[in-house]
Structures are given as structure tokens and as C-alpha cells.
# Entry
Amino acid sequence: MGAHAISLDWQVGIDPHFHDSLIQTKKVMHELFQAEVTEIVLTYQSLLICLKPDIPVQKVILRLQQFDFSQAVKPQTEKQVWRIPVNYGSESGKDLKQLAEINGMEEEAVIDLHSSAKYRVYFTGFMPGFLYLGGLPEAIHTPRKKNPEIRIPAGSVAIGGQQTGIYPQESPGGWHIIGHTPLPVFSIQNQPPSPFQPGDEIHFEKVNAIRYRELLSAAEAGQINLKDFKDD
Amino acid sequence: MIEVLTSGLSSSIQDLGRSGGKLFGIPGAGAMDQLALKQGNQFLSNEPNAASIEWMMQGPVLRFQQPTFICLTGGVQTPLLNGMAVDQNKVLEIKAGDQLKLGRLKEGVFGYVTIHGGIQTEVVYQSRSQFSAITTKKNIQKGDTLPYHSIQKRKVPQNNRRISTSFSTSNLEVQPGPEFHLLSMPQKEMLLHGEHQISRVISRMGYRFIAEKNLATPEIITAPVLPGTIQLTPAGQLIALMRDAQTTGGYARVLQLTEMAINQLAQKRIGTAIRFNIQA
# Structure
């Protein structure tokens, strides 16, 4: 795509095993094309290889044609497992009631389903720090709102279509907000700005009002270390 | 410092943009018309990447606190320095207290104020380009003060070489995008031989075209996108992604503008009809 990028696309769909091999392919390519590549963007079934401005695309394409993609199917790297505290419903999740009604269930049932599933981080996109997560239980797949909201607060946990996610910054959006996490999931001051990596596993954990307020004040004081929410 | 007396429309600090942040969903950003930025920097003998003030249609009013040299580039403008008309594409000497009023663009969409040594605001991921949640401010606001190096000398080395832009062309060079092959023959015909009109929705993120029903194409599984990627929606709307575009998208990527064509499109106004000229 253009003078400085090569797009590699497969027709596999959204598949965690294929995604694992894509993560490996990306690693191998980073090593192989260290001198030529600035960054590689990974999504569900694509890699976008961004080249330094002075590198001729054709030269890299020729080398890619000789690339043995099977060498990427190597032992898996260790994934990180995260537990994200969420205050579900009430003011934190103002659309929970409506979302439960749309799906013909109780609010508690929505919370149970959402917080008992295991989610896979596929990649970050849409806006800085926004994670594309796979694994939302089908019973709570919910079409996006017809009229997007102008302002969704940072930290909102929401459902849109077959996906769930956390809004890293205040932004407009058409997803149903079901809760709020006090964790600063993206901060340009942190190195790296977001600790989540493709292939990581995420669990949402329901917290009570007291714990939520504790975490909120810790977040306001800048005293939250995201590592404390990662399994050892 | 430059004092921002009025901000103008969508004015922001821009250099050639950042890389290394796509992994975290951080867009490249950078000047919409990079040739205009490079031209101004070249006239001033700056690094091509020196940061400038970019403005859209309606320019800011600025006051300079120290002496320096500036150059105004981009769309056709009628700038006033202390109330007197001055030229664009020419190095202008600035004295302490000088006031620059940029006014409205007569042609094009984006104007640039380049300055000797570049604007010295914070660098985040190798760039000063402003972007929401990345830099402290997402654009320039009234009352801001923007630092720059003051100069001691009366003269700066000047380089008057012109960069060719063929600004006025309505033929934009493109390459096929990853989903081009999904289009039917009549759709390809329409896309490459028809005229496409820029809609009212244009921003640093993207330029949307008036929808053409027969071009309608299904969504794809979310995939990487770049500035210059032309998406096609299920409603038949073409969207040319520009410098602030998100890093991934779910619409078919049917074409990719060349670097030159991104700069050219950036300066096309609402309602302009353009054609795509595919490169072999």
C-alpha cells in the first residue's frame, strides 16, 4: 500500500490459533527486516509492514516472496493474563438496563456473562489504546446504538455488536456502556503507553462500590500500577 | 514565544508526523500538505521536519515576542503583517511585537506558518504534531504561547528552490488497494473512470466523498489502514483517510493514494470533483 508499506492479508477470519501464528510471523519479520522496517501493524488476519522512507518496496517484496511462513509456527510466547476491575451498572454503566432489556435478561445475568468470559486481545486500533477483544458471549451481542453518543467517559466498558471494549479516552461512540474501570489503560506518560499485547488474556472482574471508590482515588492520585492487575 | 491572539479554524502544530506508535493505535498525524511544509522549511533552510503552525481555511492571528524569520506556504492567502500585505512563499523578517493576521484562504484548504528553527513544543514519539491524548493539547487555542528560538543574526541562509506540487490537478495518482480485486468490473470502471465529488465532511482524519450507490461494497474484517488509504463503505461512500486517520479500519481498502496525491487532495475543497488515475 503506497510507497512505504506492504500489506499482507490472509483469508482466515477471526481465529485465535491463526492469530498466534501471525504474532510469531511478525516477530520473525522484525528480526529479519530490522534494517528496513519502522513498524509492523497486526490485526486479525493482516500484517502491514511499514518501511523506512529510503527503502525500495520492490526489494522487500522480493525477499518476502522467499519468506518461509512455516518458520513462524514456533513455540508460543507467554501471554499475559489481566484482571480488569469493573463497576457495573448504575452511573458507571448507564446503558446496562437497556442492554439487558434488548437481550431479554436481568442486569445481573448480563454482568455474570460479561465478567465470567475470557477475552483475547487481538490488537489495538480505532484510537490510541483501544483494544480489539474477542470472546464476548453470544447472548449479549447487541447492535450498536443508532445515534452515537457525543461523549463517552474514559474508562467506560462497553458492548458494540459482537465486541466489548474499554474506552481509553473520552470520545464519541455508539456502543452500550455497561460499566467503568478506574484503571488508566492508556497513558502516553507510561512506557509503554499501554501494557496489553496481542495474544494477552483479559478478564473483567466485578468490584463492589467500596473497592471501586478506593481504586478511583488511587487512580486520581496516580498510584495505580497496572502490573498489580496482571497474574504472575 | 508566539502568542495566539485568535486560533483560526482547526489550527495545530504539525511536522512530518510520528512513527513507532501504531502498535498502540497512535496515528502518524503530521502536516496535511507535507510539500507545503517542506517548501516553507526549505526557504528558511530548516530541517524538512521542523514544526509549523497548520491552519484550515480561516487562519489565526499571532504575535511574535522575539525577532525571527518566517515563511507562509500552502493554499493561496492574503496575509497581513502589522496591517500591511505581505507575500507568501517568501522569507519574511519578523521583529519583536510583530502581529501576523492570516485571514481566509482564497484557494486550497490548509496554510502553514513555518519559522526559523521550527516551533519548539514537546516531542512525543519523535514528533511535535498535536493529537488528542498524545500531546498535551490537541490543537492550538487562543491564549496559547508557542516557543521558538530567537535569532541574533540579521540574516538567515535562504534556499529559494521551489518544490513542484501540481497543486491544481484534479487527477489523483492511486495504486490498487488490498480489496480492489473484490470489486466487480462495472464498479472498477466507475471508480477509475468516473468523477467523484468531495462531500461536506472533510477533516484531518479523512475526506468523505458523495456516496455512489452502485459502488456499495461489504465491510471487511478490521485491517490496517494508512494515510492515503481510500475506503469504500456499504453505502457506496469513498473515504480518503488523511494524516490523523486511525490505524485500523473495517471498510474495504480499494485504493491507495500516492504521497503526492495525499498532499494534493488535502488542498481540495468541499464540492471539488476529482478522478483517480491508476498506476500500473
In short: The helical segments of chain B are 34-43, 185-193, 259-266.
